[in-house]
Amino acid sequence: MKAGVLNFPDRRESPTIDQVGVEERAKRFCARSIKKGTKMSALKLAVTMLDVTTLEGADSVGKVRQMCQKAMQPLPGDPSVGPAAAVCVYPRMVKTAAKAVEGSSVLVASVATQFPSGQMRLKERLAEVRYAVGEGADEIDMVISRGQFLQGEYRAIFDEVAACKEACGGAHLKVILETGELTTYDNVRWASDIAIAAGADFIKTSTGKVPIAATLPVTLVMLQAIEDHYDRTGKMVGMKPAGGISNAKLAIQYLVMVREVLGEKWLTNKWFRFGASSLTNDLLMQIRKQETGRYQSGDYFTKD
Amino acid sequence: MAKTEPGPHNFVFGNYAPAPESKDHFKIKKSYDLFIGGKWVKASKKFETINPATGEVIAKVGEAGKKEVGQAVKAARKAFEGEWGQLSGAERGKYLFRIARLIQERSRELAVVESMDGGKPIRESRDVDIPLVAAHFFYHAGWADKLDYAFPGVKPKPLGVVGQVIPWNFPLLMAAWKIAPALACGNTVVLKPAETTPLTALKLAEIFEDAGLPPGTVNIVTGAGETGQALIEHPDVDKVAFTGSTAVGKAIRRAIAGTDKKFTLELGGKAANIVFEDAPINEAVEGILNGIFFNQGHVCCAGSRLFVQESIADKVIKKLKKRMETLIVGDPLDKNTDIGAINSAEQLERIKALVKAGEREGACIWQPEGRLPRKGNWFKPTLFTECAQSHRIVQEEIFGPVLAIQTFRTPQEALEKANNTPYGLSGGVWTDKGSKIFKMTTGLKAGVVWANTFNKFDPTSPFGGYKESGIGREGGVHGLAAYLNF
Question: Are B96 and B157 in the same domain?
């Protein structure tokens, strides 16, 4: 194998998944009791891993600017909290977002490739990637063609991911598998292995636009793919569960899972992200609760 | 291997902050008597029961001698011929349902006491042991008035007084396995819990009192081997039910030879867990760990022999080691603990001796990094590679967190080696191929075989062994038959 050459993965290296077993294991992480100092540091860690997201037809310049402010300064007056890792927007909003977060550590991620369905010719999808990068996106969240995957055209998936990676240039590529449409854990594992082999920097569960988004067991299957790739090649790949992670307790369960499956090396926003919109304020509320011992009214947390 | 300990508890760099289950919501008495004929009867002698995680004495418990065992059997006989024996199946069922509900109500207390007295992690006593205890009473409550349908046309009748001796690995669960079917079938019981873990059985006696169970229906006599012997040898006992070591099981068969006592014996095991190259590897690794480290390996059906296909052996062993590094060993009452304390100093010595033998005989030992608590009985999760059939660690039941790994090339070879043991209690097969599952599971000479999982228990499913792993079945309809005359 030459350096820099991408190879289509060997399916025999892609283990089958036992549904009962993987769901049981995922449940075990939920039984971890995270308290006191451990809880506080986990909550603060989670804030720094947020990809604060808005992906609506109604997104406007004003809305995006306000959200960027929140990402940079989640808890006004408390610099120990945040900033978030990135903001995630549609390509048309990239320029606005890039300007709003300029000078901060917050990155701009853009969905592309005909998000969320991906149902378009590859040529136009790649053009969208180049446009978003040109507008200033640091990261691209692409979707794979689930239809083609389910048709068994696995090489097409490999090729489209590799082409997107090339189109990204210096930008990081996150590959959305849309696990809710792949439906089986075996498919999720195989799609993860293809995306990783084709050069994904991150693999991501969902668009948030179909009813079944990120779950703990699905994320576990993807983490195992990352783990096996690391064991084989020594190369790290990032993970981003997205959609449905709406409270702090669940976020901590994800972090416990990352810690116990991949190890503390992955516990930074370089390698792990949450794709979420409503999670932010619950994390902030729990941080305040840890500090003061009391829950505060939602009115004390900014809604942007 | 991680451990909960004081220090910085940063989520990324530290260990998890301690999360101990509270024990201020119930009381353990300083001293317990024997439960005979519905009353608490003083024993002439007492012994101490110790928390294996700390070495501290938890309570003093009565030691029943021949005299007290005689009283208990007499009380049981009286109840069998009296109130309990006269009840209809439906009435017996009501008592069992009531007991099951009381167990659920007091589940937190029972879980904490089980972990304190026996050393098992609270996660297991809370999520596995106690729910199964209640499930066994619920399940058998349902059978109490339907025995004629379970065995149509043969008029099932209770046996009479049943003497039951149970082990220390699942103290309350084994009590439930024994008591629930016996009562459902209309028998009365004298139960002897293990000497290192008597407390939850005594708590169960309190529940029987609260449930208003007729006096003498269940009698609980605590004590050591001699108490058990007195019970088994008592001439007025109609049936002996025993769970424990194969050596004691053999002694029991000798003791009751020539009598017309019925018996069921659930004894030791050395289960083979067979992993094929087409197995769901990550789940298989979890299953292997669960098979051998569940309850510190103090499990008669533990998957203590791992047979892994040579083509994936390196990968599986690497994954096992990595996963073992994340197991949390420590305070059984901490909610994050994966592996608790070894049940007794005596058992710890036995484990150490066999592990030493394994090293001497040439197997390669591996244990995760990390320190164990200073006080109490502890042993690191351990695996041996390069094992051979002739090693003692492959032949003998260790009853501790020690896994012996061997490789195989073909399904035939795996079967031959797996069956090459005097035991035959359980086994496991891991493969994605259904036909292979059926071929292997029918070939394994073991009472319980799991496919792509391990250590799953359910009251509806019969449990018991082949060969030196015992005789008779517990659970399900088969288990009922062991408590009935036809």
Answer: yes
Check whether residue B197 and residue B116 sit in a common domain: yes
pLDDT in tens, chain A (304 residues): 445 689 999 999 999 999 999 999 999 999 999 999 999 999 999 999 999 999 999 999 999 999 999 999 999 989 999 999 999 999 999 999 999 999 999 999 999 999 999 999 999 999 999 999 999 999 999 999 999 999 999 999 999 999 999 999 999 999 999 999 999 999 999 999 999 999 999 999 999 999 999 999 999 999 999 999 999 999 999 999 999 999 999 999 999 999 999 999 999 999 999 998 889 999 999 999 999 999 999 898 988 7
Rounded CA gap, B404 and B381, in Å? 12
Q: Do A33 and B12 touch (CB under 8 A)?
A: no
Q: Across the interface, do A45 and B13 touch by the CB < 8 Å criterion?
A: no
Token duo for residue A169: 């240039």
- Candidates B16, B282, B287; nearest CB to A15: B282
Place of tokens 């103090």: B298
| Min distance A236 CA to chain B CA atoms (Å) | 17
What DSSP designation does B373 have?
A: P
Chain A positions touching B14 (Cβ under 8 A) are: 37-38
Question: Which residues are paired to A41 by β-bridges?
Answer: none
- Greatest alpha-carbon span in chain B: 69
3-state secondary structure at position B58: strand
Whether residues B334 and B391 share a domain: the answer is yes
Verify cis geometry, omega within 30 degrees of 0, for the bond prior to A79.
no
Nearest to B17 among A31, A35, A45 (CB): A35
Q: For residue A45, give the nearest of B12, B278, B336 by CB distance.
A: B12
Domain membership flag for residue B3 = no
> ipTM, 2 decimals?
0.94
Note whether residue B11 is domain-resident. no
Among chain A residues, CA nearest to B12:
A264
Whether B464 is in a domain gets the answer no
Helix (H, G, I), strand (E, B) or coil at B201: helix
Residue B13 lies in a domain: no
B11 → chain A, closest CA residue: A38
Domain ranges, residue B158: 18-267+469-485
Question: Shortest CA distance to B472 belongs to which of B221, B181, B254?
Answer: B181
Compare all CA atoms of chain B with the CA of A224 and give the residue at the minimum distance.
B282
Q: Are residues B301 and B430 in the same domain?
A: yes
- Alpha-carbon distance A267 to nearest alpha carbon in chain B (angstroms): 7
How far apart CA B404 and CA B395 sit, in angstroms, is 10
Q: What are A124's two structure tokens?
A: 């136009």
CATH of the domain at B293: 3.40.309.10
Q: Helix, strand or coil for residue A132?
A: helix
Same domain, B66 and B203: yes
CA distance B358 to chain A (A): 30
Write down the pLDDT at residue B60: 98
**B18 interaction partners in chain A (CB closer than 8 Å):** 35
Record: contact A31-B123, CB cut-off 8 A:
yes
Catalytic residue IDs of A: 141, 204, 240
Closest residue of chain B to A185, computed from CA coordinates? B280
Q: Are residues B309 and B432 in the same domain?
A: yes
Instruction: Looking at the structure, tell me whether residues B316 and B195 fall in a common domain.
Output: no
Are residues B77 and B92 both part of a single domain? yes
